[in-house]
User: Which sequence fits this backbone?
């Protein structure tokens, strides 16, 4: 394992410290407990947006703190949900009195820790609503699982909910917009290689040179099935078809097409995937109205990508288009 | 013999030792069907627990005080699924152990409360390939061993053995809770990391009692 | 070799096609010969800016086409300079009559091909000036080499020259601003792993598990020397110190600090590098006035990073801050 | 015998064949001290050359026409350093071969022009570990072999052998031009890919002449 780190035990702290210095115009980094908050938080008159989760998915979530998106992000240890004692203070820091929305990816650890944090914040008089993001169609039969995982669709939830909060929506409305995004977004991912968690030092799963994992999550978990290596177009079809089917996408609809890199795949390849995914969306008579291509929800240096499709209506499109100014997303 | 606050401190320190010793093993189990961090998470947590025990001015008064310290420390340092689950287990166990000494019945009550805490947070039932599959047989064995006048060591011995067997029994299970559930059938053939760490924890309680006898 | 591609022979075309669709609001992709040009090119009254080079460095250069930066980008084959017959038409497409600046990274192939293209454009009545970017301090003794390479500093040259063109500077002035940036920017990089060029299918150089290459370029060339793996802080020092020395950076000066990822290194690690590099800049009494951290000039999926420092004066800072709207850089 | 346009076409096709055959070898040489693409670049270029030759309505009139087609095709398809360098070599060679047939003297003039083109673009002198180190001895050998009435095949044989020796002689050199120069001392101990491909190119000229004899 070769990594540009000093010590697995300090990598998250040092990285977030560096992040804070590089983006001091946007964010303030609070140490002990560790969280990242808008430099101008709390923003008066606005519902606060807080997200968080294990580190290793950068730029998620700290890279999305700023006007038009999150008010605070709570980074946990690598691939490990943060604890209530950091989430709760971040929640308080994001609160200007109109309540706070927790945006939580659906993993047992994240759900439980945010749950406790919400109780703690509530005890301090801050009203908290929670939206659980669960866009990963790779997890089928949610009756027999911990439920669908939250993956790249989280970016859309954070962006659009952020825009809703920005225009002055109250907590219930922001939560319901976030739920609407979640209900209309689906993702599925592939890994060509595993990632290496710094403290573990070994690949999170073993893949031979001619195998890939279809239906991976973003924590180095193995995927749903292992198949022989295939072409970009074939792989893209394996990701996109379940996404479109599950979404029940029909002709004439408008979508955001988001091809997300897992960290170790070159941008040029993500555009090859985008090209085919776009073909597939258009083959259903739907229209790609907005696009996003890049490394936004990563698994350290994992090679791979995911395809996310969000069904857009006029309001969601306007909120997606609304100004955003964060380290990783800006327009 | 009855189990006092010194036993509780020994128990917690022994658990920390076992977690440290098995850190890589637990992480490797989690690599197979999870996200490669369970040993690391617990190591971080119990290292903090030991540090807080060491930093105490005077010794805690009662068993429950020790368990409460463990609960709050794990909750604030472990994260992931195991942090809140173990944290709640210790918290509930602490509530029923505000005692100077635990007899066999109190030991059973403590284990029952721990299991209740895990189930209350995680909603898992036995057979879902989680730590519940270590705790649940441990509680049942403790209840069965708890006859009139029995030494609490005997109860803990029964619980520890049952927890270990319960952990082994997770091997063939297909996970339906936690991260391993995403693997579906592929989760079979691997031991659940949380069940394995739970077995260490209960065994430490027994060893601490034997050491003090 | 596992890559999200269909065929090494078509990967560049397909990737650029996908890029064009994803960013149709910003760019038009011209096929055969292949180049990417601003959707609204030529922009009246503005000096045109054209860059290009081998593919595999994405988002460079196509990701920097748009208002405030490049007018056209010419992608060559993987790691291979484009040919004059694509550069020349791109130059004509970028020309609105005020002349065109070629921004060329200093590699024999790029220099020669752009040279011929400039002659061809000149024959069509388009005045061309060329700035050669050569910021890589890893190449010492330029008497005994093809000269310093152009690496991550290219982003600063393109951004700032783009802003100068945008404010209406004439060709000579834009060229002289570009030269000034080049004269004040230095970079140095490290590779933790080699990249794999699709057509070759094998790593561009061999590194064992405990070796790294210091002073690498961006084409998978081996570096200047191979050393045992070290900590992020030690490596960052090996990169930053030569950069600062060569720049002769003194106390009180203001700089842009740019930590660039080679493609396969997680963003979290780039911030760890940034943190240390910033310490080192500040230890000289200089001030980090602007920062950029991310994957901007990559070598496919290579793991590694480079540190770039640009000495800023008030004008360069204002030009850096000027609005830019491209796929990869936007503010 | 004298060398006519049919020879020129054979030469170019033979070169394309050798490049295809040695594509991986040339790329591997470039991997050692360059950027892992030289064989690929030339393969792309000569494949296009052959395609354009195949697409011609009638055969080209003169040797120079063939070489000009090669020059423009390589310039527009190879890219990198080799594209403009070889392109210019062929372009200059084309200029002095607007002839129906080449005698020994014309062969020498053609090789001289090619070398001049490479030097004009690349500014390398012998000993810098570039294709010049194959071309330069080839030209010298051709000049030496070019005595009154000699068969051009003899001149090409001398040139080809010298080019091959020249390529081998790049092995110990430390590069001071091209991408390999970035390696400094580490470039020694490897053959220059451009010199190796140049040797193939000159050998193809000779073989094409032998084949037509
Ligand atoms: N719903 C649940 N109920 C009980 N135990 C659970 C549940 N979900 C997960 N676990 C336990 O947590 C363990 C994983 O802990 P850990 O690896 O520390 O957390 P994470 O999965 O967040 O990385 C599993 O092995 C399992 O025993
Ligand atoms: N200045 C130069 N003069 C002569 N030949 C050169 C020069 N620079 C590079 N070359 C030749 O070009 C070869 C590399 O070609 P190629 O790999 O196709 O281009 P690139 O280096 O752009 O990838 C080198 O092996 C060398 O022989
Ligand atoms: Mg975890
Ligand atoms: Mg885990
Ligand atoms: Mg090249
Ligand atoms: Mg090369």
Assistant:
């Amino acid at each position: 394992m070769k990594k540009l780190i000093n010590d697995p035990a300090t990598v998250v702290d040092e990285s977030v410290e560096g992040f804070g210095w590089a983006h001091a115009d946007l964010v303030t980094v609070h140490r002990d407990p560790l969280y990242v908050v808008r430099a101008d938080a709390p923003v008066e008159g606005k519902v606060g947006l807080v997200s968080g989760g294990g580190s290793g998915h950068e730029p998620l979530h700290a890279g999305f703190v700023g006007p038009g998106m999150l008010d605070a992000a709570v980074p946990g240890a690598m691939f490990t949900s943060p604890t209530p004692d950091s989430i709760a203070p971040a929640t308080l820091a994001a609160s200007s009195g109109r309540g706070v929305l927790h945006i939580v990816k659906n993993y047992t650890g994240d759900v439980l820790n945010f749950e406790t944090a919400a109780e703690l914040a509530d005890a301090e008089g801050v009203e908290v609503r929670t939206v659980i993001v669960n866009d990963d169609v790779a997890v089928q039969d949610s009756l027999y699982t911990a439920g669908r995982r939250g993956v790249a669709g989280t970016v859309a939830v954070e962006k659009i909910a952020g825009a809703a909060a920005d225009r002055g929506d109250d907590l219930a409305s922001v939560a319901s917009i976030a739920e609407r995004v979640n209900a209309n977004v689906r993702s599925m991912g592939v890994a060509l290689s595993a990632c290496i968690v710094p403290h573990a030092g070994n690949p999170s799963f073993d893949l031979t040179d001619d195998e890939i994992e279809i239906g991976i999550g973003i924590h180095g978990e193995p995927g749903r099935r292992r198949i022989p290596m295939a072409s970009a177009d074939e792989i893209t079809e394996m990701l996109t078809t379940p996404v479109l089917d599950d979404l029940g996408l029909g002709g004439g609809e408008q979508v955001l097409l988001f091809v997300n890199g897992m960290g170790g795949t070159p941008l040029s390849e993500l555009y090859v995937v985008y090209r085919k995914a776009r073909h597939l969306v258009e083959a259903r008579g739907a229209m790609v109205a907005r696009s996003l291509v890049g490394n936004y929800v990563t698994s350290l240096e994992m090679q791979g990508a995911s395809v996310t499709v969000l069904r857009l209506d006029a309001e969601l499109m306007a909120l997606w288009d609304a100004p955003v100014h964060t380290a990783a997303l800006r327009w | 013999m009855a189990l006092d606050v010194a036993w509780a401190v020994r128990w917690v320190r022994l658990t920390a030792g076992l977690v440290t010793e098995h850190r890589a093993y637990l992480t490797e189990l989690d690599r197979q069907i999870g996200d490669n961090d369970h040993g690391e998470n617990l190591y971080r947590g119990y290292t903090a627990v030991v540090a807080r025990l060491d930093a105490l001015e005077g010794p805690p008064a009662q068993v429950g005080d020790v368990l409460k310290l463990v609960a709050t420390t794990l909750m604030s340092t472990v994260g992931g699924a195991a942090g809140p689950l173990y944290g709640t287990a210790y918290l509930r166990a602490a509530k029923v152990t505000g005692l100077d000494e635990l007899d066999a019945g109190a030991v059973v009550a403590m284990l029952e409360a721990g299991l209740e805490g895990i189930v209350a947070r995680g909603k898992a039932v036995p057979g879902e390939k989680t730590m519940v599959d270590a705790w649940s047989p441990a509680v049942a064995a403790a209840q069965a061993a708890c006859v009139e006048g029995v030494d609490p060591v005997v109860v803990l011995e029964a619980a520890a053995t049952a927890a270990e067997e319960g952990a082994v029994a997770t091997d063939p299970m297909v996970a339906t809770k936690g991260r391993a559930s995403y693997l579906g059938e592929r989760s079979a053939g691997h031991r659940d990391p949380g069940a394995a760490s739970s077995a260490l924890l209960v065994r430490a309680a027994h060893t601490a009692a034997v050491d003090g006898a």
Observations:
- The longest helix of chain A spans residues 267-283.
